[in-house]
Amino acid sequence: MNGHHTSIPISDDSKTPLLAADDPQFHRSGSFRSTVNSIFTLKNLYVVLGPVLCAAVCSFMKLEGSSPGSRNMLGVLVWVFTWWLTEAVPMPITSMSPLFLFPLFGIAAADEVAHNYMNDVIALVLGSFILALAVEHYNIHKRLALNVTLLFCGEPLNPPLLLLGICATTFFVSMWMHNVATAVMMMPVATGILQRFPAGPSRSVAQSKFCKAVILGVTYATPIGGMSTLTGTGVNLILVGMWKSYFPDADPISFNTWSFFALPMALLIFFVFWVVLCLMYCPKGSGPALSTHLDKTQLRRELNALGPMAFAEKTVVAVFSILIFLWMTKNITDDIPGWGALFDGRAGDGTVSVMMATLLFIIPNQKQEGEKLMDWNKCKKLPWGIILLLGAGFAIADGVNKSGLADILANALNFLHKAPYLAVAPAVCLISSLITELVTSNNATTTLVIPILIQIANTMHLHPLSLIIPGAIGAQFAFMLPTATPSNVVGFSTGYIDIPDMIKIGLPLKIVGIAVVSLLMPTLGRFVFGTDKPM
């Protein structure tokens, strides 16, 4: 190899050093300088910043009623989040750091931490990803993308309408599917539309903005749609489960009851979100810049070129449809138990997700003799980074609970006792969303805040639901950081958006969401959940 020749760039720049390159003194000082420069980079500074901040927290920070375990946990959190936010170390590698930090800091045993990296939710994600890869392999996402684009394109092209079509499709899918699965399924549909635009520097400003709008649209329409039904997200199921276990004699929250309240709320937030997205990313007159790449006749020609759906495509769609049906019917209501009751609640969403994914490796694709719908080679693109990131989220949630840091956070909320409801509801929503954003998963946040909010509601003589519903919904308003929720990670990993884009849309979205919940809870919520009646 002659790689060493490339180490000295040949430049005709007037600033080229006059000292001869073979001068030994130049080599000595140059190599020393380059070594120093390579050590003192901003990235390396961030690498060191994590452990330094962790040491500072562990040594000097005094938390009221804290044990060394909770202080160490806070230090580890600071370390991990410093690395995540600065990307000093690749995100998947940072996500593995709890595997060595927790045992070394005495937070949890190695086995306990490792358990968090493979649980039912991660099984759900794995199965969903394998199905999503099958959808991608057979170009089903391309079909859906072309159909959605044709339906909402408008004549002439209307970018806000097309954006609404993509976001509304995601919203609808998310009502029936887990948020992660929705994001994984809809993101290839979105990128399928965006691949029509030129890449790199040849992409115009209008095209670049529209690309960002589509990815942000899918990323955030996913959690907004998920809020509207009980099966849309784990948080709603946790809320219903905890309500039942804390108040067994009270009326349970059924699928329909929840939707009466949550669907109007989600639609209101969705509408404002679409308007904000259009104002920021679809400037007037952006239609012509986009229409050259989204010509209706060309789209129809491409759809025809795909031909009719073959056996393989139909089977993958059928498997996916059966999976959605199984997710929706696992637990229906208390009066009508789902199929989950047959297995005494042992089967989870991940169980069916992996089971249906396994079918793809058994059913023949009828294209070539002996070939199945999927093989392991096609699964090489599984996004392990997201799976590790999820595992880290669960490990941190577990560590926060076990170390006693959760109790310290609970005591910090005691100041809410004397405040009026219209001040408390937004505060509860905001605190929940910030905990999800910065500390742990939305499921873990819900599990953490509901018991505290029930205590606060008792102290304030309020109906518990008037606080725990804003708390649980607030936990889903994590719109500002890529690490906050798996759907944010999926959107961020496409490479079309960066953190400032997420904050620019996420902050107004968070404010609107909190305002909508705080206003609907004492009005529509009182009517739907009967929060004006005594418990």
Automatic annotation (TrEMBL):
Name this polypeptide is given: Tonoplast dicarboxylate transporter
Gene name of the record: LOC111434214
UniProt-listed InterPro entries: SLC13A/DASS
Keywords recorded for this protein, A-Z: Membrane, Transmembrane, Transmembrane helix
The species this protein was found in: Cucurbita moschata
Main location (coarse class): membrane
Gene Ontology CC terms, in alphabetical order: plasma membrane
GO-annotated molecular function: malate transmembrane transporter activity
Location in or out of the cell: Membrane
Pfam families, sorted: Na_sulph_symp
Topology within the bilayer: Multi-pass membrane protein
TM stretches of this protein: 45-63, 92-109, 121-140, 160-177, 213-240, 260-282, 303-327, 347-363, 384-401, 421-441, 462-485, 505-529
Domain of life the protein comes from: Eukaryota
